[in-house]
Amino acid sequence: MLDRPLILTGFMGSGKSSVGRVLADRLGCPFVDLDAEIVAAAGRSVNDIFTEDGEQAFRSMESACLKRALDGGLTVIATGGGVVIAEENRINMRKQGVVVNLCVSLAQVLRRLHGATDRPLFAANNAAKSLKLLMDGREQFYADADIRIDTDGKSVEDVAAVILRFVEGLHE
Ligand code: S3P
Q1: Which of 58, 76, 111, 112 would bridge 24 by S-S if both were Cys, CB 3.0 to 4.6 A apart?
Q2: Of ligand 1's atoms, which has the minimum distance to the CA of residue 33?
Q3: Rounded distance from Cα 57 to ligand 1 centre (Å)
Q4: Could you tell me the domains of the chain?
Q5: pTM of model > 0.85
């Protein structure tokens, strides 16, 4: 049985929170949604934090919440899409947990997030071209994972099943 955090990384709309909830349920362990933790700690929405304090302030809160979540033993952690930007976060995640990257196509992101207003970086980059630039710029950081899973055409259950098989394989 896994005794470390299982961390889901991936671009906005890759399904981290939905898959994470299913995984935590199957593993019988706590589920932490990093964005929700940040919002609870700050008492403000992600949009408000970005607007009032700027992205850097959000990133500092994100790193602090990640550190706390990583210290919790077996926990499924759904990160925000930008957690991988900071090298410190990537090092901590790889050192303390198992990092699962959910890959998603640009087309799928545009479909899933159509009309979303709660993600400042989507609102600012929702033209396909700028969203693709943001995605491509992060690709090298998403690649820093123990396993990468293509989620296109897969249901939440399908993706969770692939991850559970991988986790079981870690202990064989
Ligand atoms: C962000 C993704 C969001 C949230 C914030 C910034 C990003 O999380 O953390 O809006 O930089 O990609 P989701 O990936 O859950 O949408």
Answers
A1: 76
A2: 15
A3: 14
A4: 6-155 (3.40.50.300)
A5: yes
